[in-house]
Structures are given as structure tokens and as C-alpha cells.
Amino acid sequence: MALAIRRSTSDIFCAAKWFIRRDCRVLSTLPEKAEVEVATVTKKEKHIRTRGSRNSALENRFVYPEFLPDPNPNWRNSLREKLERADMLKRRNQIDIPEFYVGSILAVTVADQHSQGKTNKFVGICIERKGCGLRAEFTLRNVVDHQGIEVRYDLYDPTIQIIQVLRLEKRLDEKLFYLRDALPEYSTFPFDMDPEILPEGTPVPLNPVQVKLKPRPWLERWERQDLKGVSNIEEHLKEKDRVRRELRATPWEKYDLMKQYRQTIPIEDQNDIWAEVNSQLQQLHMTRKKMSRKRTFSTPKTQLG
Fold this sequence. Notes:
Blueprint: H1 2-22, H2 24-27, H3 30-58, H4 60-63, H5 78-94, E1 105-111, E2 119-130, E3 137-144, E4 147-154, E5 160-167, H6 239-247, H7 257-262, H8 267-297
Helix pairs in contact: 5-8
GO molecular function: structural constituent of ribosome
Keywords: Mitochondrion, Ribonucleoprotein, Ribosomal protein, Transit peptide
Subcellular location: Mitochondrion
């Protein structure tokens, strides 16, 4: 009996030893790690591709901010917003509305029946862009004959004939109202300014210039607005102005997630909007690009006589 038990035990030990020697590759962890790494890399690549494709559509919120509705839910109406987007696309079929930002220099030509040539052209720097839908508007500023002139245009105004970007760039602040109290050279641009053409595919340049304000009084209390594009605010402040600025400062607002949520459109709504208009916007962009190339390479006609 004892001999049979020892024999069966030795047989089991030999079988286990043969199995381990034969299938050691199955028990090794190296291939599993390699497979896990390959799967992880594949997931990362897939995530990057998905994120890139999603961001490529969401980049339109900077180029076409007026297509996003008002974040205030009391002013939302899905049917009105959809009809407005259709009207905006039809208007863009009639006129080329280029990409521009606050800080870009534009030349706008509008129809004016009281003008000698029935048109009126104004050149200036964009100091504000606001509104949504058909109520989108932008403001241009220029200094003409030592007098600051500002003209506000409705972006989808049917009297606008040409919107030309003379210099495409951004500034450090979202609004440039402080140019009203700045030195005039920061708002002076010639009406015969030549357009500056950027190479295709280059990002929009950021102009880091910081303006200098004139002595007080100012139109607004610029020292309380955390401006990045002004360099000499502290030179014109008194001690009581600094104390009042500290008392009225609200540094916690940048951590207020609920306030930020109320001021933005949810990503789900943005995806629905861009899925609706993105194809038509891209088609319009390609059509405008082909037309500009034809104008560039067209040969002038020979004049007879």
C-alpha cells in the first residue's frame, strides 16, 4: 500500500515537472505585459484621434462665436435659434465674413445712399465683439483728425458689402475699451492700410503689446478690472485707490464652477449645433478659398489701342 502511494506520488510529480517544462511560456508574464502595452497604446491613439476630431469641430466656437446661443436659459428658444442659424448661413452665402478677433484690424464697407459713391468705408481696430445669432455685433475704433471715432456694426447687417481683415491678431484682453483712455497712437490706423496676409495653416498671432493710459480722470475704473494689456495703471493710483481695489476684489470667482457653467453652453449642445452647421461652413470656406485663388492667378486682359 505504501509502495503504491509513493509510486503514484512520484508519477504526479513527474507529470507536473513535464507540464511546467513544456508550457512555461504560458506561465510567463512577459507576453501578457507586451499585449497590455499594445492595447494601452492603441487605446491612447484612439483617444487622441477622437479628441482631435472632436476639438477640430469645437474650434468653431472661437471662429464663429455667434452661432452659439445665449447661455441665459430665460432667453433660449430652440426653434428661433435654428431659424436664425439658417438665416446666418444664407447671409454668409452672399458675403464673405472672415475670421477675426478682438484686436484685429478691419476695413468695413457699407452701403450709404447719402455718400457720394453710395458706399462708406471705415478702418479700425476691433475693441469688442458680442451678441449671438442675428444680434451679433462688433465695434471698430480709430483716431481721425485727433478725434476718437467708434462705429458699431451688426455682423449680419444686409447693408454691409465687404468685411476685410487687414491684420489678423489677438490681444491680451477680451475687450479693449481702455483704448479710449490710452494714448492715441494705439488706436490710429491709416485708411489706405495694406492687408497683411498670413501663410496658410499658421496660428493666429497674439499681440503682447501693453498700452499706456493718459492721466486721470478715466471713463472707467480700469484698476479694478485685472487688465493685462495696460502697463502704467499703478503710476496713476493713490493709496486709497489701491485700498479700495483690494476691498472690492473678488479672487474667488475664478473658482466658482457654477458661475462658469451659467456663462457657457454645455458641450452636448455645442456638439449638436456644430453637427448642424459645420459641413455648410466648411463648404463655404472651401468655396471662398477657391475664389480667392482664381482672383490671384487670373491674368489681366490686354487693352487694345
